[in-house]
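Justification of resources, computational component.

The compute hours requested in this renewal are based largely on the per-chain cost of generating structure records like the one below. Each record pairs the submitted sequence with a full structure-token output. That output is archived, and it is also reused by downstream analysis tasks.
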Amino acid sequence: IIIIFNWKDCFTMIKLKRWWYETKTFKNYIGLGVLFLLVIVLLFYLKSWSDTYKKEKYSKSYLTDKVEEVKLSELEVSTKEMNDVLLLVTTTGSKKVYKQEEKIYEYMKKQNLISKFIYLDITNEKDYTSKLNNIYGNIEISEVPLLIYIKNGNAIKVINSDNGEIKVELITQIINEYEL
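The structure output for this chain reads:
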């Protein structure tokens, strides 16, 4: 067997190997760059989705499907039909209010007072204070959310929120005072 060795072929093979290695490395860098861009785009998409989910969650009340909800136009008729009612007047769109509604609901559920608890959303209502005053007389409304104890269609006691929060202790006080 005779092997003929050609130096030109050897150099050509070395150049091909070097080119293949450099191209392969370059392709790896391109692949990593594309992967990095995909991860960044995915993170932006997930952040956007998360923000949209939170906004949608807080745009609805926690109490929407859990307790009776009334509209301001139907409030007078609805509360006259009920003997003892706790009316929660609040807005939507805030995480703080959502969490507060959650606490109040859990407390009312624990006290078995869900049937005596109604909810009024005033987010899109204009001049709700004068409308509530027309229905229940001259009640003091300083800040929402607020809780109104209504007996036979009359507002007996109003609990205004303190920095956007209604304390459960005040609800307990109403329950004990008026024996709900």
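Residues 7-59 form the longest helix (53 residues). Helices lie at 7-59, 75-81, 95-110, 128-136, 168-177.
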